[in-house]
Amino acid sequence: GRRDCKLCCLLVAGMLQVSGMRIYTHGNVEAVNGTDVRLKCTFESSAPINPSSVVISWSFRPLKPGREESVFHYQQKPYPPVDGIFRKRVSWAGDIMGRDASIILQQVKFTYNGTYICQVKNPPDVHGAVGEIRLRVVTTASFSELLYLAFAVLGGILVVVFLLVVIWSCRRCKKRRQGQLEENVEAAPRKERKDPTAW
Predict the structure, then answer these.
(1) Could you tell me the strand order of the sheet in which 69-75 lies?
(2) pLDDT tier at 18 (50, 70, 90 boundaries)?
(3) pTM of the model
């Protein structure tokens, strides 16, 4: 009785979880004032993706107490906001069939600090958690970002140096081999003349 009921509840909960919309976002994003930033939001749906029925909504909750504001809407085509602080500052960067609902905020300002909420509906799959991204707009890149950039540049330089060394070594080996082959070709007839009875 009770054990069967628990098992049944677990199965139903599992089915609900599988059939719900799943949304994936990067929790915290940092952007330098005046630059563009991509707010990445991807999704998984148990229902087949139908581009004509997928609805994507992005909204913004500021750090200071205030009302939630619409940032972007997508339904068959992108609908950027016509007024508010995001007017002419948001562009579509997603791909419905690629399960990508990302947007780009252009020339971010300090007033953009806050939480961005990504919601995707793919009927009949309309229930599920929303994705949240906390954006922090800063004056300059943080030390960790600068360090990451420095390592990336250094890594790129090292790869180029390594490739040049490999190419140089290969050419040197090839020249050495060619030299040895030429010596062997010249030396071979002499050896035959010296010892024609060798067998």
Answers:
(1) 28-32, 131-138, 114-121, 55-62, 69-75, 78-79
(2) very low
(3) 0.62
